[in-house]
Amino acid sequence: MPPLRVRSLALATAVLLGALGPAAALAATPKDMVVMAAQLDEFITLDPAEIYELVPTEYAANVYDRLVTIDPADPSQIVGSIAESWTVSADGKTFTFKIRQGLEFHSGNLLSAEDVAWSLQRVIKLNKGPAFILAEFGLTPENVEQRVKAVDANTVTLETAKVYSPSFVLNCLASWVSSVVDKKLLLANEKDGDLGNGWLKTHEAGSGPFKLVAWKAGESVIVERNDAYWGKQPAIKRVVLRHVPEAASQRLLIEKGDVDIARNLGPDDLKALAGNADIRIRSVPQSAIYYMGLNTRNPNLGKPEVQEAMKWLVDYRGIADNILKGTYEVHQAFLPKGFLGAIDEQPYRLDVDKARALLEKAGLKDGFSVTIDVRNAYPSPEIAQALQANMAKAGIKLEIIPGDNKQTLTKYRSRTHDIYLGQWAPDYMDPHSNAQGFAWNPDNSDSSKFKLLAWRNSWDIPKLTQESEAALAEQDTAKRTALYQSMQREFQKNSPFVIMFQRVQPLAERKGVAGFVFGPINDMVYYSGITKQ
């Protein structure tokens, strides 16, 4: 078995318990280990070609390398990673990458251009959830081997079907789905032509700064420093992510010193920790958008008047001030602040009378009953209860269906929900990432290859899809900005989405812990710079 074989879960659990068990309450965590309290219930797979959840993309960012990456100090800048340089052809459709020489995977296998090309080809051939990010270039299982090639041991070319802004292509290649995997290792573990997907669900095949020690679903993820890493060596030897779904439990653990970083604290917990000299609180702007998705397959939710009524039944400011308290801010457009073309207009507020009038216009004067699927972790239950109370004032009986993130997402992705309450984070640092999610649906059939947010809510939008594609192709920055702004204003008026908030990430860190990089999107979260005194 290759050297990177994941150590037994029994051993990993023993290590974890040794650091986090009862004795840990009497002393800090080990100096060479950082323990984070996080919510890990969304982990389904460890294969970067299949991962399509928030914290799992963070895992991929630390275990795998990509051709290029985003400078966390300046997200507008794309820098080389496995690729030391690149060029774009005169016609704008062929990207040529020069690969660094002498790189190794965790297995000890040499990393070559063939691994890079095969990794991108594999994403398209597997056609899992995030494959659309690369399929946008016109790549298909039938043409990908011709469009993505290893020209020699250190050169890869990628040919797009049409001309895009180079920054869009590079931003996509900087996303987690473009992680470079060990071809030799995965083919050795291939079964029934799955390109190693079954094996990689619980193992890893990367070359990044950290190696996987163990993943135990619903409990923990443990990674350790790759001492043979080609780039800057991580400062810390081991990082443990511990699943702690309750905010109050995270607070207790960091107060006692059982964890070094707590990542999902509620307002009351942050307030309680504010005066603790041993803990630092910092807030990091994020790009995640909190929203309700209304499935138009439900006859009532398919009515434009009902969709608008629900936008008038949200107490945006009250929820932000009394429930979220610094963890989110009011935002009502599909592009986050800081993105090209973002707007900060807030046309909606709580107005029950307007909502009632719209419901009457829709033939629902007496209201109706509907369900909402809610992740069973702060702040979703609290927001759902506030929504339930205000919708009741207009006669809408909202039944809350709680579940872990895996359950709610699975139901949402099969579009069997009524209303989904959750958040969407951009896949890459370009406005098309969110426009494609909320305002693009080229095929509304059940067999669609592109099952993003508009599709999940059965929203058939040929005109808005064309507008999204036109904005993507626009080469003039000012014109592209204007296109996205116009789309968002129309979207606010007419869509089955109630966009409410934008995330602000509060982090609590023990004294002496520094260097944890938490970028605006989840696959820009890096452990390498963490230090601990």
Task: Please explain how this structure is put together.
32% of the residues lie in helices and 22% in strands. It is an alpha+beta fold and 533 residues long. The protein has helices spanning 9-20, 54-63, 113-126, 132-135, 144-147, 166-173, 183-188, 197-200, 247-256, 267-273, 304-311, 316-324, 352-361, 380-392, 405-413, 431-438, 453-456, 462-473, 477-493, and strands at 33-38, 68-70, 78-80, 83-88, 94-99, 148-152, 155-159, 210-216, 220-225, 238-243, 261-262, 279-294, 328-330, 368-375, 396-403, 419-424, 497-510, 513-514, 517-518, 525-526, 531-532. The strands form 5 sheets. Strands 1, 8, 9, 10, 11, 12, 13, 14, 15, 16 and 17 form an 11-stranded mixed sheet that branches. A 4-stranded antiparallel sheet has the order 4-5-7-6. It has a two-stranded antiparallel ribbon with strand order 2-3. α16 (431-438) runs antiparallel to α18 (462-473) and α18 (462-473) runs antiparallel to α19.
Quick recap of the structure?
32% of the residues lie in helices and 22% in strands. The chain is an alpha+beta fold and 533 residues long.
Helical proportion, percent range: 25-40%
Rg measurement, Å: 23 Å
Distance between the termini: 37 Å
Low-confidence stretches: 1-26
Largest sheet descriptor: 11 strands, mixed
**Mean residue pLDDT:** 92
**Oligomer designation:** single chain
Strand content is 15-25%
The helix-and-strand class reads alpha+beta
Characterize the overall form.
globular
Number of helices: 19
Beta-strand segment tally: 21
